[in-house]
Amino acid sequence: MTLTNSDIHELTEFRRALHRRPEVSGFEAETARSVTAALPAADLVVTDLGGHGVAAVYDSGQPGPTVMIRSELDALPIVELGDLPYASETPGVAHLCGHDGHSTILLGLARLLARKRPATGRVVLLFQPAEEDGSGAAAVLADPRFAGIAPDWALSLHNMPGVALGRAWLAAGPANCASAGLRITLTGGTAHASLPETGRAPTPALPALIDGLRAMGPGGAMGAGFRLATITHLRMGEPAFGIAPGEAELWVTLRGLSTEDLDALLTQAQDLARGEAEAAGLVVAFSIHDRFEACTNHPDATAVLTRALDAQGIGYDNGDMPMRGSEDFGRFGGAAKSAMVFLGSGTDHPALHTQTYDFPDALIAPGVAIFHHAITELLG
A Pfam family in this protein (predicted)? Predict the structure, then answer.
């Protein structure tokens, strides 16, 4: 069973309509309503799941596993450039990662499932909210209603600029790093700029803190024990010449190839900050943001996707896997056999999160075909 030419035309138009009306993480209410309205008849539709998430269930009525296919709803707080006829109509927000295309693929898959249910088990199509800030998957999993549709298998895809159309990246094992944003606040006391010694400025602590963070997360080649610390923001005192500052804030993004590597790096970074704060007579406080767990492809789920790629004549290799970037899909691997495939968007295609990126509509049909083949293999 495949999509018709009419299906592909309608799905392309839907994808472009989503592109016009992007919404950032946690605010995807209109996007969720549009997806829900476009779903063909499902056996169960769960809305407002973990926020604005939507889950559509296509049930065979026969015993068998639950297979979940996941896409994302949210866009990015970035100004879109270019002259697309369907460009973003929301100032400062745009679909520059392809989540509009990923969700359209799931709607195409829904059309096939509505026409013919799987022979056994059930399929859950999850349109996940808030992927970009790492909060969506955790919220979906924490929603009590998710327990009733929890999957045995979880599959997903992401488009990948720089990889040729008709090619993919896929490999078992680590796929994406775990990461978290650590905000470090140092508080002392201000003083007149002519008498800095009478205050407690964070100035002496910051260079040692920055150098220490970079040394404990140097990056380098991907592999076991990979760790990276990236300073992303620094603020100290008020913009005035007459005041010696009394506080500072440093933001650092920490990455590890595994969740355990990330946890160790978080602990080490906080210990370093405590030591530097104590030496400078400062009070230190922490907050953690945008937490992503490591994304690991289960060998069995990877094998299913491998056979689906083979069936569609899509070549694949390990590419640059595992990747430094993070992906909120990793949390679903805690209780399900999960895997993600990276589908080429074109070697010269603008990169993800750049202002001229746009999802290639040519990926809609093969994306649907990959998932449909996987579902048929698992459920019949």
Answer: Peptidase_M20
